[in-house]
Design brief:
The protein is an alpha/beta fold. The protein contains 16 helices and 10 strands. The strands form 2 sheets. Strands 1-2-3-4-5 form a 5-stranded parallel beta sheet. It has a 5-stranded parallel beta sheet with strand order 7-6-8-9-10. The two termini are 42 Å apart. One of its GO terms (molecular function) is glycosyltransferase activity. It holds the Pfam family Exostosin_GT47. One of its GO terms (biological process) is glucuronoxylan biosynthetic process. InterPro entries: Exostosin, Exostosin_GT47.
Amino acid sequence: MGRERRPWPAAAAAVLLLVASCVAAAPLQQHQRARITGDAGGVLDDNPVGKLKVFVYEMPRKYNQMLLSKDSRCLHHMFAAEIFTHQFLLSSAVRTLDPEEADWFYTPVYTTCDLTPQGFPLPFRAPRIMRSAVKYVATTWPYWNRTEGADHFFLTPHDFGACFHYQEERAMERGILPLLRRATLVQTFGQRNHVCLQEGSITIPPYANPHKMQAHLINPGTPRSIFVYFRGLFYDMGNDPEGGYYARGARASVWENFKDNPLFDISTEHPSTYYEDMQRAIFCLCPLGWAPWSPRLVEAVVFGCIPVIIADDIVLPFADAIPWEQISVFVAERDVPRLDSILTSIPLQDILRKQRLLAGASVKQALLFHQPARPGDAFDQILNGLARKLPHGKGVFLQPGEKVLDWDAGLESDLKPW
């Protein structure tokens, strides 16, 4: 589905050159001074130590380190936040070795390290792994049973979080793993009014390697000569050959309507210059796939390319800290056929304002899992999210002998031992 670059029509070229020249002429110092201002809350900005205490369970190696050593590729895929968050918490100032003073309990389980030979995460064994881990925690320490997990949090960065399936219909049939329904889920998935989004969940960005992106930075004064950019699947031929279910048809609609539009540089090919190309583009399409999100959202922000978010009812990562409405363009899935007119009608001053905000360091930092961690990065945003949920409300601590969760609930295949 690649295509040859064709000459720009005169009108389209004029629009693009006007925007590109204005962007290139914008002073670099002005970009550097731009700062994101939103309702960030700043719960931990002044001094995280003493305001939040997290107890990290020491789990048998089979739940994390052995899974990682079996296939280290899970350090590099888009779900790797579960591994790096564990590493961060082990050395974080919020960690406590005294569980009696803990506000939150964390169980490090690397469910996304179960990979196919091609390196794609398989979520099918994840419920069994997680059930086994919860049972171990509940029988080894007294803290789970006091709340049945209501003061515990888990990283579940699968396509549909703790529903543990990459196809939405199957994920909805399974539902959130019953044993996690009182816990706080820290997950990439977020879609309003969806059975796989638990109330109180913390939506995080997918993992995108900060060092890899840093290595591909180009001169910030480079003109943005591409109007709309996208590289990725339009049809998932292996799972949805008709193209109507994958991405709810939105990606297929992009291809069918704009494959020959010279304003749109779109293809399934993934060139070695992918990151450089994003830095030369004004708009980067961020359509849903099997799930509403993808690493493109992070990449677009990091490279200053205005994200065009096509995913109805999406819950964006750290939405209380990042003013997504100010730095992005939202297009309803049903409006994809009008994408060209929607983007060309955006006033130039609005485009420049979004680009200045994207050039600020704080919004980029908030979406990245740096190693080592940096102030204001995604790890800090997770801590902010946990801190905002304190103090724990009524109903968290159960009465002696009180039970809420049903250990025998769930699909028969999920109840098998792991």
